[in-house]
Input
Amino acid sequence: MASMQIGSGKVTRTDVARYAGVSTAVVSYVINGGPKPVAAATAERVREAIRALQYQPNATARALTMGSARLLGIIVPDSTNPYFAELTDTIAQAAAARGYALLTANSRTDAETERQNTVNLVSRQVDAIILATVLPPSEVAAMQVQGIRRVLIDQSSIVHGIPIISTDFEQGATIGVKHLIGHGHQDIGILVGRDIDPTRPDPRQNGWKKALADAGLPEGPAELTDFTRQGGYEATRRLLALPKPPTAIFASSDLLAVGALRAIHEANLSIPDDIAVVSFDGTSESEFSWPQLTTVRQPIDRIADRVLAAALSTEEPAGGIELLTTELIVRRSCGC
Amino acid sequence: MASMQIGSGKVTRTDVARYAGVSTAVVSYVINGGPKPVAAATAERVREAIRALQYQPNATARALTMGSARLLGIIVPDSTNPYFAELTDTIAQAAAARGYALLTANSRTDAETERQNTVNLVSRQVDAIILATVLPPSEVAAMQVQGIRRVLIDQSSIVHGIPIISTDFEQGATIGVKHLIGHGHQDIGILVGRDIDPTRPDPRQNGWKKALADAGLPEGPAELTDFTRQGGYEATRRLLALPKPPTAIFASSDLLAVGALRAIHEANLSIPDDIAVVSFDGTSESEFSWPQLTTVRQPIDRIADRVLAAALSTEEPAGGIELLTTELIVRRSCGC
DNA sequence: GGAACATATGGAAGCGTTTCGATGCCTGGA
DNA sequence: TCCAGGCATCGAAACGCTTCCATATGTTCC
Output
């Protein structure tokens, strides 16, 4: 009757079993609805003991026995980028709904850090690693992961044996740029984020090229820069310093676009009258910039869904690529 | 010579020991550099075996034995808020430097979710929980945490027996508002984020009151709203709809300020000429809004440092409160 | 040359779970 | 009355690691 529990004492299953006068096996059966049935009266006694002792199972021990900690890992190049923050949060929520936690690692767009992050997650025995890699596909494929399943996101170049769930960047960029073309722009520049692997062309840039080519327009100026607000700012200044600056800019991320907005404002140019802007991502930040950004929204919810399904699937990893389509959110920065 | 390893096979310490012709104890000694010394030749043989087998220790097993998973947990009300994203990232980095990982949980400013997050982290046996709570102090104190250490952040009301590391919100708000007063503003409004616990006054609001009182100015209008960009937007529209809107606004977060900026722009008012704005947080977003926000920067690095020290300390939890001072970053939105 | 001592290594217990057999009891049918 | 068959429960092994204690060498000093 009297509730025991000494301050910070660790109550284990043994304590509960003793208190309820049963074996630890029975306690397990009750807690897990376990493989064996338990008489109703006994079960009630066990539950009573758990309550009285304030017992909480030790997830670490369970993980060791089960070979799974119900833990997922995710590695992103910049966890403070609002897109990744929103994505990570959405995935974490979906994971939590299935009893999994999500361990977030930030590679800071650095190859070595990403490798370390991977080793770390592997040794922590995560059940799967969700990876927005900055490494070339071959290296990703070669990496030692003790058979831990991986799911690639945010990337279009296929990697043998590893499933990829990604936004269709090319399609997204295409609709963004087409929208700008629809406004009559003929000279459309692009801001693209610099990658670790310079040989890998950004599919958004491809989409931009394609849209331009389809409309019979010449390729506008492309600026490669860091994937940050500051990067977008600097790149846009360079664009504006051109003898003949573009009349519209497609930014391959909200972050870049926000930097661009500042550069354009500072140059005392009007948006969208002097220069129109369309961005990519569709984070909340794009909704509150000035002017509000017309943006190509990545389907975060669907990505999270599909990624989780792939990460938790028990089937042999398929290794294909699944591209999710985007949606154009029309606001003010395009001239609508 | 020949490297073995079958596909996804789990290589354990036993395999390494067998391969190197030693006991598992020796393998441990080599890996951990302790507690017993190992002959140089033997150690080399073990390392060789580890390499050949691509052995990686199982952190879960280690955690069970050691009683610590080298895991910290953090619960924040909104992980996509750039301030918390930056803070979490900084703490994660500092933790990683000491061999700890950080598990992030998002309470969505919801009491019940926060409770669940706590239970979850406790059962995962984290070594400490860093908590930006939305609950009243008494409930936090009463919560069952199996003796797991907690550190409170982002909060000034003291809680018995739990150490608090927080920005000095009141001081920060004071210098922000004083700066506005220095610009000659007499009618300064404030945007404050709504809390779960309506009885707990926001210390930033106190700072604002104090600065005003010190200058002999009347209290301006205060708008309570959601802690989001949208919230800041709506609250500011209400402010602007007042018969006599304030000439300056102090926003108690960057998020709120960004929303405010949009509302002011939409009203075709000039910032800072018609309405000046000073925000609180100092995230990167404040640097790229238009105009750039003058802001009271929270000392994220120092917070991370102190929080980690408190979380990892082996001493009896002190239970005091440590307030860190802010710094005013002067940019354009204040009129400078 | 033998005892006392370092030094290097091995054996085994224990961390808190899960779950597989094994056991004991009770029921009902013959 | 006896036995087969079910049901409820228990005992113990296993998960991979750390570390205490013991043992087996080799060394040094009288």
Summary: Residues 10, 12-14, 24-25, 28-29, 32, 34-36, 57-66 of chain A lie near DNA strand C (CB under 10 Å from a C1').
